[in-house]
Amino acid sequence: MMKTPDDVQPEPPAIEAERRRIREKHLRPSGERPASSARGLHHTALISSDVERTIEFYQGVLDFPLTELIENRDYPGSSHFFFDLGNGNLLAFFDFPGLDVGPYAEILGGLHHVAISVGPERWRELVARLEQAGVEHAVHSGVSVYFRDPDGARIELIADPLGEMYGKQVL
User: Fold this and answer.
1) 10, pLDDT greater than 70
2) What's residue 20's pLDDT?
3) Are 67 and 112 spatial neighbours (Cβ–Cβ below 8 Å)?
4) pTM across the whole model
């Protein structure tokens, strides 16, 4: 199970000292940072073992509207489909029929979790929907709920606004 802010124990001084060194070297106050070269996150693509089951979960349970279902240009016979996450952001999926891609695995360079911001009222509604659907989940700090999608990908719904994390501005 992944660690959450409620599970974190005080860190050894050496770890915080290294984090402080990296912040001092690389982190600039917002007024001194250059503009990003990016316009935003176009989409994050996950892998689905069952297109319809994935649609039923993300659209049916989480209320993320399906926006398109097309052929994956990189693998004939594979689908590429998208869900609207608001603010021009998409969550995408591929299926790879005929390939044995194996179960979700947390590896270096891999995906740990996808955190999706929702308003506080919608957050409470979605936590209730997860409960009604029998989806195992863990609520932390009163603003985050962690769960796995039907293929095991870790998802977090967070009631904090975009650019904020646990009451602290991160953007």
Assistant:
1) no
2) 92
3) no
4) 0.83
Rounded to the nearest angstrom, the gap between the alpha carbon of residue 20 and the centroid of all alpha carbons in its chain is 26
Q: Per residue in 107-116, is it b (16+ CB within 10 Å) or e — as a string?
A: eeeeeeeeeb
The rounded distance, in Å, linking the Cα atoms of 79 and 98 is 12
Say yes or no to pLDDT of 1 above 50: no
Structure-block tokens of residue 85: 């996450």
Q: How many CB atoms lie within 10 A of CB 69?
A: 12
The 3-state secondary structure of the chain reads: CCCCCCCCCCCCHHHHHHHHHHHHHHCCCHHHCCCCCCCCCCEEEEEECCHHHHHHHHHHHCCCCEEEEEECCCCCCCEEEEEECCCCCEEEEEECCCCCCCCCCCCCCCCCCEEEECCHHHHHHHHHHHHHCCCCEEEECCCEEEEECCCCCEEEEECCCCCEECCEECC
Strand order in the sheet with 79-84: 43-48, 90-95, 79-84, 66-71
